[in-house]
Design brief:
With about 200 residues, this protein is an all-alpha fold. The protein is about 80% helix and about 0% strand.
Length: about 200
């Protein structure tokens, strides 16, 4: 269990890593922003790798807590997916593409954990889609494994959207297009109707 100070450190470091990328954020900068000494910071986290892992683990824990709320309150699987869509949208709007570039290039140990988490998320997606078939909102004639894999690749593409589209489109436009195409491809007419109504109400 993290102490109150460790939680403060994790919260501040997470914000800085996501907004600025990992490499450009130093332990000195984090300590300065928190108003604590560098020695105090290192007494709580021995190295930047350890702090970065703690940030990702905390993010994962918070994400799971939100997912539990979505699961409890959902009307159907499409409703759940739309809540997850909004969650990802909020996250990506506040995250620099350099965060993902830096993690893959300079922090392989942390990136390996991130990749392992991604595989777990993919399996969870397969299970949810199967539930959606029973609810009548997801088509039964699709390969769930392929669909979940393709969606994962599309999210990877999203992280590089600035490079690919040269900022011609906003992140929101790109993400909404990817998500709508995904839902329309796997949903029954009832599921498509539910999705269209959601986007119309939230436009």
């Amino acid at each position: 269990m993290n102490t109150e100070l460790q939680q403060r450190i994790i919260k501040q470091a997470t914000r800085m890593f996501f907004c600025n990328g990992i490499k450009s954020v130093t332990m000195d900068m984090i300590a300065s922003q928190l108003g604590i000494s560098k020695r105090t910071l290192y007494e709580n986290f021995k190295e930047k790798n350890e702090l970065l892992l703690a940030c990702l683990e905390n993010q994962e824990m918070e994400k799971r807590a939100r997912l539990e709320v979505y699961l409890t309150n959902r009307k159907n699987v499409i409703d759940l997916l739309l809540n997850v869509y909004e969650d990802i949208l909020r996250f990506m709007r506040n995250t620099s593409p350099m965060f993902f570039v830096d993690m893959k290039r300079h922090y392989p140990r942390v990136n390996d954990k991130y990749e392992n988490d991604k595989e777990c998320h993919k399996q969870a997606m397969v299970d949810l889609l199967k539930e959606g078939v029973g609810e009548g909102v997801i088509r039964a004639d699709i390969n769930m494994e392929i669909v979940a894999t393709l969606l994962t690749f599309q999210f990877e593409l999203l992280k590089k959207s600035d490079q690919i589209f040269n900022s011609k489109y906003t992140f929101t436009e790109i993400f909404e297009t990817i998500f709508k195409s995904f839902i329309r491809g796997i949903a029954t007419p009832e599921g498509v109707k539910y999705t269209d109504e959601f986007f119309e109400e939230n436009r």
